[in-house]
Write a structure and sequence with these properties.
Length: about 290
Amino acid sequence: MQSKVVCIVGLGLIGGSMAIALKKSGFASKILGVDSSGPNCIKAMGLELVDDTCTLEQGVAASDVVLLCTPVDSICKLLPMVLDLAGSMASRPNGCPVIADMGSTKSRIVESVEGHPHRSCFVAVHPIAGTEHSGPEAALPHLFDGKNAILCNITQSDPDAVATVEQMLATMGMKVSHMDAQSHDLHVAYVSHLSHLTSFSLALSVLDKEKMEGNILTLAAGGFDSTVRLAKSRGETWAPIFLQNREFVLEAIDSYIKSMMLFRDALDIRDIDRLHNLMGSANDIKRVLDR
């Protein structure tokens, strides 16, 4: 495997963790960092996540692979610009650099470059990994180990670009699968986006109660901590995700409310058998999680 120059746009948790993994694996010989935040660039250099920071134009010109690791609304704005820059460099000895985004929504991002003359340079990716923390200091060396990565709409991408991205993800220890963007967004609304919304909602409920019952959090234990952990996630990251996937997130919320009402109704009429049945049905999730 020939090492590559990689430009990472967005030096937060995902971008920083990718920088560590790609340098350690040998996939990247040099990592350039681009971030609209000056402090983030300074932190990334101080933490040795990147070898140098530069402008977007400089990063695209100097790199074999460009990874967009910014919030999804920013990706939709940046991606056409990056493809314009990459296309103007197609005559380089290495040809057009491979462009990949790391957003957790895919349909809007793919639509943002529909019909672009250099669309084939782009590969749509969702690495399913993360924590509730943010910024360069949140980067982790093993964040992607054993995790899944979804590549979407690969028939619109150049096969060599897809192969490069798959090789990159494999060196990070990820398991790769393919899916169309619409199916991806539907599924992720239920297994990821709804989890975050539930966590935010629970946090708001408890904080509202805390205003009247100041000692309520002294009763919080492991179950509460694990359920509400995601509420520490940045709104700057998650609000655009919810809005971009609005249709499927609303569907997931309606389904969740329907399930909550089943429990509420059983409690309202003191029906312990119905509660047992509902929880017994829910226990079947072990079949999915333990496989």
